[in-house]
Amino acid sequence: CLTGGSGSDVALASKPHGGAAAVSDRALSDRPSEALEPDLPEPTVALPPDVVPVPFLLLARFHLKCEIDLKQVAFGIRNAEYNPRKHGSITIRLFDPRTTALVRQSGVVTITGKVSEEALKSSAKKVARLVQRCGYQEQIRFADYAVTSMLCSADLRFPVRLDALATRWRRNALYEPEFFSNCVFRCRKPRVVYLVTAGGKVTISGLRKMEDVREALRRVYSVFYEFQR
């Protein structure tokens, strides 16, 4: 089941959602890697088993290994959207699971969705099969699939004093409550950005594998724990 859609979902997938995007971008530009603390201290508080990062938005890329006639594919996939005056790609949105893909003439496909890693890869293969049925039975290959970005969330189970956190970690934290109510906390190793709310909710971006996300949360948990209220 397919419908047309805009490419904005894919374009935004690599950034925190909502108002966090602009603040996170500013954090990245205002804090060069060399200005950050070399690394976080070794954790003094163990990460509780109920504090678990959960992926909620994934972005992946793969290659079809051949040039694509976008007009031909647009006519061959019902309700696929193609407007060459606006985008040099076809937008395909699947409902089950709910994902959005951009197919480019070069054969590169970008796909995003609020789904699991397994569901995103399954959707990517569905997109490849749909394009294959549009006159590319022999040429199409599903190759070079890789998750390029993910957003994960976690609940620390305690509120955080953001002002104190930003004061102590002023080289890593960006907190300007008059413009944005949350704190952007950036680390150099691993290279990751945390968006922390006063209520203890954390959004983690900048990593590509769940094991890296879990390790990043384990390392930063002690830092946030020190400023609980």
From TrEMBL:
Domain of life (superkingdom): Eukaryota
Family matches, as InterPro entries: TBP (IPR000814), TBP_dom_sf (IPR012295)
Keyword match DNA-binding: yes
Protein name in UniProt: Uncharacterized protein
Gene3D superfamilies with a match to the protein in the record: TATA-Binding Protein
Family per similarity comment: Belongs to the TBP family.
Key words of the record: DNA-binding, Transcription
One GO term of the biological process aspect: DNA-templated transcription initiation
Molecular functions (GO terms): DNA binding
SUPFAM superfamilies per the UniProt record, alphabetical: TATA-box binding protein-like
Native organism: Alexandrium catenella (Red tide dinoflagellate)
Keyword DNA-binding among record annotations: yes
Name of one Pfam family that matches: TBP
Region span, Disordered: 1-44
